[in-house]
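> example.struct
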């Protein structure tokens, strides 16, 4: 197994945290600058002193309050080195800290509720016109699922030219591009909506999964006795010209890991309740998205 975020219901699934971590690190280096804009590039000395100073003081306070020993301090150093060696910084940061950054950003945002991006978005996936079927294997396991809806502006105007970039795990919790099992591009795509902003995406329902347990992030999680599970979810980037791209995830009612997401990314507003379509075991969920004016810079 070569995923950085993997399902572990099957203890026979091997994981290669180093390989997956390298992929996630490379993706973070190359893709995120395009996704979120280049930034100002300016160094704000006061801002650095304030934010980094507060973060360091939080750690110092923990050391004082809990009387951290040299043995624990050295174990901390070794763990930090392991996170670097395995390329798990994107995983660790996105699992344990990104949700707080997202909440800060959300305070000044309008439109549909979003959540974290996570470390497993990949740029340059296949572009498809709606109604679209995501790339999948001939014998792709899992429940056939349709996700459909409409993308509009905050005033209700349908957004022609909208796109829905979608990625999720397969029925066993593996991400293509980060795991050896699914082929490249599996269950990933960028769907072009129609001239009314409508989309219809045919895929498979994803599965809950754990973060990888063989790397330092998973090892820390288990050592602390925390749950490593993420509820099943679909990742989305909903975009339209002249509007801020919405980063979101959609979850499923009844998922046993809702409310106990290791990444703290689930929100009640993001839960789907798919219903049977009557065609075999196929299910369908409808979800509209509202984008606010603006850009991603
Ligand atoms: Fe995910």
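> example.seq
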């Amino acid at each position: 197994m070569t995923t950085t975020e993997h399902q572990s219901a099957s203890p026979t699934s091997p994981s290669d945290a180093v390989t997956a971590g390298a992929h996630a690190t490379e993706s973070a280096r190359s893709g995120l600058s395009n996704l979120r804009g280049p930034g100002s590039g300016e160094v704000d000395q006061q801002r650095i002193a304030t934010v980094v100073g507060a973060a360091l003081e939080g750690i110092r306070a923990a050391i004082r309050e809990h009387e951290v020993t040299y043995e624990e301090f050295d174990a901390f150093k070794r763990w930090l080195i392991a996170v670097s060696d395995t390329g798990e910084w994107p995983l660790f940061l996105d699992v344990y800290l990104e949700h707080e950054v997202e909440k800060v950003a959300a305070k000044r945002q309008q439109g549909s509720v979003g959540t974290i991006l996570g470390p497993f978005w990949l740029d340059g996936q296949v572009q498809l016109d709606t109604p679209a079927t995501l790339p999948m294997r001939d014998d792709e396991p899992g429940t056939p699922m349709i996700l459909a809806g409409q993308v509009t502006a905050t005033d209700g105007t349908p957004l022609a030219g909208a796109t829905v970039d979608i990625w999720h795990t397969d029925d066993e919790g593996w991400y293509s591009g980060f795991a050896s099992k699914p082929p490249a591009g599996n269950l990933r795509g960028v769907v072009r909506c129609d001239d009314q902003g409508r989309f219809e995406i045919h895929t498979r329902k994803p599965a809950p999964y754990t973060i990888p347990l063989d790397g330092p992030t998973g090892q820390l999680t288990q050592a602390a006795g925390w749950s490593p599970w993420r509820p099943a979810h679909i990742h989305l980037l909903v975009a339209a010209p002249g509007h801020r791209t919405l980063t979101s995830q959609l979850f499923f009612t009844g998922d046993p890991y809702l409310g106990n997401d290791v990444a703290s990314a689930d929100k009640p507003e993001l839960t789907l309740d798919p219903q049977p379509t009557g065609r075999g075991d196929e299910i369908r969920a409808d979800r509209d998205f509202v984008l606010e004016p603006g850009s991603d810079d």
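> remarks
Residues 217 and 260 are 17 Å apart (CA to CA).
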